[in-house]
Amino acid sequence: MLSIISSNSCVFLGIISSVFGAETNEMQSVSVMEGDHVTLKTNVAELNGDDDITWKYGAEKYLIVKISEKRNVSKFDVPDERFRDRVKLDNETLSLTITNITTQHTGLYEQQIRGTKLSSKTFNVSVYPRLPVPTITRDCSSSSSSSSYCSLLCSVVNVGHVTLSWYKGNKGLLSSISVSDLSISLSLPLEVEYQEKNSYSCVINNPIRNQTTHLDITQLCSNQNQHLDISHLCHTCSGTAELIYVFMY
User: Fold this and answer.
1) What percent of the chain has pLDDT over 90?
2) Lowest mean pLDDT among 30-44, 45-59, 228-242
3) Quick one: average pLDDT of 213-219?
4) For 1-12, how does the pLDDT look when each residue is reduced to its tens digit (9 = 90+)?
5) How many CB atoms lie within 10 A of CB 131?
6) C-alpha span between 138 and 229 (Å, rounded)
7) Using CA atoms, how far apart are residues 34 and 122, in angstroms rounded to an integer?
8) Residue 86's closest CA among 67, 65, 74, 101?
9) N or C: which end of the chain has fewer CB within 10 A?
10) Which domains does the chain have, with CATH numbers?
11) DSSP string, 204-222
């Protein structure tokens, strides 16, 4: 009786081992800028001629590409047709490329191979909007804490998931502000002395890109015996400031 239980237990454990050994899963994170393309690469070493391969998108696992064992390719789209004319498949590796990607394509992509064994690979794709160039202006609405200081604002509009920062020469970060919302406007103040000789820059960045504007102090701030004529910098101190274009890259 004991030998029978032992035998059955071994058979049962063997089945469990066989099932779990036949399935592999892998997760990979991918970040890309809006308007670029992204390629989700298949593990070529796992492909066999009789494999059935699918690409799915989102939590709903919408089918977007299916490759039969005879290498017949069928393309599908999600209900809102966000993948129309954007999906390409490499004929050799069967890797998936999404062209002219937008923030609507953010999400999970699953590539599944069914054949002698079952394997899947999931890609967590994050798409970031294009970054605007920060604008530096004289802050007419602010009264400086000292008459020897010039008040400035670095601003960006319609941004999300970014950090806006002021940097001073080689001394590094002075101040920063971050936002995780979408389509929001950010402004970050800075006070510099009229006779300041250091270089300053305002930088907006997300996890993969940045845009920088350098401050031209001689253009925005000048000391004329502490009687600064700012009529050429601001139309009204209670309204909208005129933008001053500075050197940027």
Assistant:
1) 43
2) 228-242
3) 89
4) 333 333 343 333
5) 19
6) 12
7) 21
8) 101
9) N
10) 23-128 (2.60.40.10), 135-220 (2.60.40.10)
11) EE-SS-EEEEE--HHHH--
- Find out whether 154 and 213 touch, Cβ atoms under 8 Å: yes
Nearest to 214 by CA among 168, 248, 163: 248
**CA-to-CA distance for 112 and 236, rounded, in angstroms?**
62
Q: DSSP readout, 37-93?
A: -EEE---GGG--TT-EEEEEETTTTEEEEEE-TT--EEE---TT-TTTTTEEE-TTT
End-to-end Cα spacing for the chain: 82
**How many helices (H) and strands (E) would you count in the chain?**
2, 16
> How many residues are there in the chain?
249
